[in-house]
Amino acid sequence: MAIQIDTQACIGCGCCGEVCPQGALELEGKAVVFEQYCTACGACIEMCPVGALSLPKQ
Question: What's the CATH number where 42 sits?
Fold first, then answer.
């Protein structure tokens, strides 16, 4: 289970990648998650200034 990125809301600031302890997020214009590394810890969600990140709905 990996975080989801709302690419419409993402402003490409890079805050999420800076706080990710697994290095699962990278900027390619906007944030991209590498699902194989994401542990869904939520650190990036709290840091995102525009609320573009979320845990997947189950």
Answer: 3.30.70.20
